Amino acid sequence: MRLLDFSYDLPDSLIAQEPLPERTGSRLMVVDRSSGARRHEVFADAFRFMGNGDVLVVNRSRVVPARLFCKRATGGEVEVLFVGKLGEGAFRALLRPAGKIRIGETVEGANGRFSLRMMRRIAAREAELETAAGGGIDDILRDFGHVPLPPYISRPDRPGDRERYQTVYARENGSVAAPTAGLHFNETLLETLEAGGVQVLSVVLHVGPGTFLPLDEETVERNSRPAEACCIDGRAAAGLRRAKAEGRRIVAVGTTVTRVLESAYRSGHIQALGEHEEFCGETDLFIYPGFEFKVVDGLFTNFHLPRSSLLLLVSAFLGREKTLECYEEAVQRRYRFYSYGDAMLIR
Fold first, then answer.
1. Per residue in 50-101, pLDDT tens?
2. Residue 108 forms beta bridges with which residues?
């Protein structure tokens, strides 16, 4: 397959730069997976398309304020994007610009209130750093970190993004980008769903910086995804087993949940985890057309970038032609795209 075949034209004016005042105010394109038939709704009415016995699975990962702005002793500016911890005081980060900082060099942020030391290079843009002053990395991120808004949002982050670029059910720190399909849910909608007999389960996938990176190979099958940390516990596994055995529908909130569920099935953890057990590991599952879904029956998802792994996953679930038809109609109807944009429900 050619990556070029997963392209579409999008006016810049349709890339959402701000969240709506109300989470559930987003538009919702409801798509029949078999026929491709579409209807246009509001996300606040999503409960109308979920039934008694359905299972809704969410990603409870929490976005960390992972972006730090620092300066070298020469006065040059450096952007540090925290990726993950490596050990006592050490962590992985993406640097911009990447090539100028020397091993052993210290950079400062917040007018000297914290400093970081370069330890070694891991890859072209990635390095190991350690905290040199200002506390541990968790403290520095909490006090001085900026929300890592994606590059297509062409404005600096604001204080309100700390709450709005976060799902209402986020619990466990670890993501450097939001699992955006979940941004549309508020507590009232979740309560309405549960009152209607929908079971809500949660898993974890900590979204890594690979979500920002383009696919490199024009032949789809030659691409891969970087591994991301994920967890599924025995309660979720048991709920999924029961739902499958009883023929009930499992609806994933986002591509991250889809990848956790399909990975956990292939590794046998959904089938085998005991009630008080938990599996935590990594997944590099890359889903593209031709993939056979074993767990997910329905999918809430945002509108994704052309030629991206996320669009490939949606195309695998719905079909390439139907997906691109949905996107064409979304452009014609001026839906809002990407992280702070509108949503689809594929049933």
1. 999 999 999 999 999 999 999 999 999 999 999 999 977 899 999 999 778 8
2. 71, 115
- The residue among 87, 296, 68, 307 whose CA lies nearest residue 201 is 296
Contact present, 310 and 344 (Cβ < 8 Å): no
Q: Which residues of 81-112 are buried (b: 16+ CB within 10 A; e: fewer)?
A: bbbbebeeeebbbbbeeeeebeeeebbbbeee
pLDDT of residue 213: 79
Start-to-end CA distance of the chain, whole Å, equals 26
Q: Is the pTM of this model over 0.90?
A: yes
Average pLDDT, integer, range 298-323: 98
Residue 76's φ and ψ, nearest 5 degrees, are: -65, 145
Token readout for 116 is: 């970081």
The tokens 């195309």 sit on which residue?
315
Mean pLDDT, residues 324-337 taken together = 98
Alpha-carbon dihedral 140, 146, 149, 154, rounded to 10 degrees: -150
Structure tokens at 226: 């970087």
Q: Would you state the pLDDT for residue 99? A: 77
Per-residue pLDDT tens over the stretch 138-189: 999 999 999 999 999 999 999 999 999 999 999 999 999 999 999 999 999 9
DSSP notation for 21-83: SSGGGSEEEEE-TTT--EEEEEGGGGGGG--TT-EEEEE-EEE---EEEEE-TTS-EEEEEEE
Dist CA 96 CA 82 (whole Å): 12
* Residues in Cβ contact with 225 at an 8 Å cutoff, skipping those fewer than 6 apart: 210, 284, 285, 286, 309
What residue ranges define each of the domains in the chain, with the CATH number in brackets? 3-63+161-346 (3.40.1780.10), 67-144 (2.40.10.240)
Residues composing the chain: 347
d(CA 181, CA 167): 9
Phi, psi of 172 (to 5 degrees): -110, 115
Q: How far, in Å, CA of 64 to CA of 82, rounded?
A: 9
